[in-house]
Amino acid sequence: MTAATKSCLAITGGVGGAKLALGLSRQLQPEKLTIVANTGDDFEHLGLDICPDLDTVMYTLANLSDKDSGWGQADETWQFLAALGQLGGDTWFSLGDKDLATHVVRTRERAKGKSLSVVTRELCSALNIEHSLVPMSDDPVATLIHCQSGEVLAFQHYFVRDQCQPAINGYSFSGIGSASRCSEFTRALQDPELGSIILCPSNPFVSVAPVLDIDDTVDMMVQQSAPVIAVSPIVAGVALKGPAAKMMAELKMPSTALGVAEYYVDRYPGLLDAIVLDIADAKQATAVEALGVQALVVKTVMTSLQDREQLAADVLKFAERLSLV
Ligand code: FO1
To answer: Most-buried pick from 31, 136, 216, 293 (CB within 10 A)?
Structure first.
């Protein structure tokens, strides 16, 4: 049985990870792929339940996402936001007219008592998404950003309102101690046919870590036999999207793909079997392997759909090779 016929568990945040999740969905049958999205970025805004990473992945899988920003919907209109601004409402978080429908439906369904996983399944089904996209947890977890100024910011205030400008000295996940994995996530971890766990090229600190930190997730990942493979979100010292490189510098880590590998090894000993580096970082492969982590060097920058499919195929083939060793 090859990795392509075995199942795959992909852990993702927003835009960067969603690209690889799409590539994986084009390589694997729906029953062979579970995509778990970070929900630490979720927040209540204007009375609505907003789940940015779930929505980014959902729109990406449904081919609805805005191709320039990577979040929100393509061909969006902004009449709601303009009208809100006229009334003196909060407009720092851009909710498009089409996107708004998602948040209204989610909020309404959750108010009826449905879990976030159930509502996510219903939204995905309405958008004809066949692959399984699940939140990391049905319990609330909120990522908090600790600034060097002493201020503690809710994630979207840091990321969107303050444009990642504040220098940080840490982060934490409020509620993580009492959050449980959603059942589909646990089922995927226990699947005897699991062939790979892929940490998508999302922010290791505030997108992947909240997912890994739930309950005994890391222990379960270490104990099952499938290789755990991270794809570096840092290429040539730069984060392709978001503040990962800036955060690394502020947290006194080298902003490199090697720095990403070192972080995973230090924070989660024994978890990482391998990391995928971009060709631009080929010279770091030897240092990565000295950490006891296998390195695969391929093109990881995904600009086209073909790039997404190719990287997914490369990572799955790599997982297959690692499983045979
Ligand atoms: N990101 C922005 O940079 N600016 C926005 O105004 C913004 C609005 C927004 C609305 C809905 C949604 O689902 C996502 C949105 N995002 C926006 C993206 C999001 O804040 C981030 O990409 C993630 O939280 C980081 O992964």
So the answer is: 136
